[in-house]
Every structure is written in C-alpha cells, then in structure tokens.
Amino acid sequence: MLVELGILGALVASKDQTASSQQLAEASKCEEGVVVRLMRLACSLCFCDELDEQTYRANELTIMLVRPGWQGAMRWMDIIYPVTANLRGFLSSTDFGRVPDPSDTAFEYVHKKTMWRVLEEKPDQRRNFDLWMHERKRHEETLWHRRYPACASLSPDTLRSGPDAVLMVDVGGANGSQLVNFRKQTPHLPGRYVLQDLPESVAAMVQPPEGIEVVAHDFFTPQPVKGARFYYFRNVFHNWPDHKCVEILRNIVPAMDPEYSTLLIDDYVLPDKNAQLRSAIADIHMMYMFNSSERTERQYKEIVSQVGLEIVAVYPAGVNEEAILEVRVAVNK
Ligand SMILES: C[S@@+](CC[C@H](N)C(=O)[O-])C[C@H]1O[C@@H](n2cnc3c(N)ncnc32)[C@H](O)[C@@H]1O
C-alpha cells in the first residue's frame, strides 16, 4: 500500500527526505489517518525512521523499496503468495512427496499452468518479473565478468572476429542485465552479443539494449548460434528438474566449438554440508515452483557429464553461495 499509494515515493522525493504525515497525505492524496497507521507499521519494520511524532525520514530501505525492481517484485508476489498459501494443500495431495509425479508443482496446482505460461498471458507480470531479475543482480559483486577471472585477460588477439563471430550468448537472459554490463566494460572486444529468451520476454522489452541482438529462442530446441566464445546461463538451470537440464544442454552441445566455447552456469552452488539459510530457502522455493532444486557441485557434475561436458573450474561469488561453473566439452568425451 505504501508503495502503490506513492507514500514512500513522496517521502524519498521530499526535502532532506523528511516529511510529516500531513505532507505525505497531501502528496499521495491519501487520508492522513491512513498515512499515520501505515507509517507506524513501516517504521516498526525499519522501512523508514520516525524522527518525531508523525514526522518521518527515508532510510536505505525506503530508497531501495521505491526502486522499479522492488516495486516489480512486490507486484509479482500477487502470483507467488497464492502458491505459498496453498503449499500444504499441494503437499498433502501428493501424500507429502510420497506419490511421485514429476509433472506436478505447487505452482501448477494453484494456477493450473506453468509459471512461464502465466507470464506469457500477463505481460504486466512478465515486466515485473524481468525488473525483479534485473534488480536482484544489479550489485557490482554479482556481475559475472568481475567474478570470472578469464574475463580479465580477454583480448582481441585471443578472440575470433568477423561478422559471424559471437562473443557471448545470454541464454534465457530476460532483459540481459549481465550481457549489457559486460558489453559496457568490453567495447574493444570483437564478436557479437546475443540475448535469447522466450518471445513474450523479448516482446516485453521496451527498447532493446544498444549493441545487443535480442532474439526469441526456446532453449529446448537446437541452439542456432554456433561457436560462441561464451554461452551464459544465469539462474536458468535451477528452474528445471535434472532431466530437463540435460535436455537444455543436449541442445547446446552441438553448437559449442570444443576448442573455443565455454558454457557458464551462474547459479547457487550449495556446499555439501551446512548450507546457508538463504540457499536452503531458495531450494525449497524451486521445489514448490518448478519441482526443481538448487544444486551442489556434485549434482551439477552428474548432469553435465550426461552430455559429454565437464566442469573445469568453480568461481564462488563470495557474498553468498552463488558461483560460476566453467564448463567445457570433455576432453575424452
Ligand atoms: C529465473 S529467470 C533468469 C533470467 C536471467 N537469466 C537473469 O538471471 O536475470 C529464467 C529465464 O528463463 C527464461 N525461459 C524459460 N523457459 C525458457 C525457454 N524454454 N527458452 C528460453 N528461455 C526460457 C524465462 O523467460 C526467464 O527469463
């Protein structure tokens, strides 16, 4: 309500980011009594500070909450909350996992279709989802090219050039935030930058990012871009159960040049023991949304080896249990 009514936005926009309930009521055209009650809750949650009686100041959280990505995330919860609210009903319908049906997810139990289908039918929610994906990884330490050491030594001498040469394909890349950032840092490098996602994601893009080719591509069909230097997947495999991950990989391996191409998986990579709370929650989220999981390195090894690939290095993010897995065509495939 605070975001939708523009109350937090008005606070952030006010002089010194400080305002009284009366000023916020005027700015948001909301009854002052409602502002006071909502702000009481917001301050108790540390979303902003109450300096004096009914006088408020924005803090770091307020500023974060009014960003488009966080607004998108809160609106996106319209789709998610009914799923979590019905989780127990779903689990009970599967006898708490004892009745195996790999096509069942709590999401489909509630919405009667997959999440990708819901997003296809609701362009507004597709946009909210993409904004949220972008927001989640906007921080410097999460940028893949900062965490992947090979990027530091990329140079025109070691890369292919010419009209067919492709430097990076961001597969299932949504709005391609990582690709856009990488391109900004590497304008001197040869090769094209290609962003692929479902047609509705491509259609939701208001303006294609400069210098990026945006193409609709279903990753369950053969990869059309051959011999790229990098095929990059961020937060893609965690949406799919093992057999579907194998299918995605099977469609990309023939496009890889064993001498040149690297496949990068940027996702949670859980430790074998004592996983952090955040990773454990993300894993359960994947379970009820997609019947998939966050995985350990061992689990990823098992998956990639089924299609003749091998993990050659792992680069942890450092800030949480996410990492980049560097994957190549196995030498003795
Ligand atoms: C969790 S999002 C991650 C998006 C992006 N990589 C990021 O990290 O911001 C997964 C993405 O996979 C895309 N996707 C789902 N099914 C797909 C398919 N069959 N082919 C291509 N992309 C697909 C979704 O549209 C979505 O953008």
From TrEMBL:
Gene3D superfamilies: Vaccinia Virus protein VP39 (3.40.50.150), Winged helix-like DNA-binding domain superfamily/Winged helix DNA-binding domain (1.10.10.10). GO terms for biological process: methylation. Residues 167-308 form the O-methyltransferase C-terminal domain. Keywords: Methyltransferase, S-adenosyl-L-methionine, Transferase. InterPro entries: COMT-like, COMT_C, SAM-dependent_MTases_sf, WH-like_DNA-bd_sf, WH_DNA-bd_sf. One of its GO terms (molecular function) is O-methyltransferase activity. The active site is at H238 (proton acceptor). It comes from the Eukaryota. Pfam families: Methyltransf_2. This is S-adenosyl-L-methionine-dependent methyltransferase.
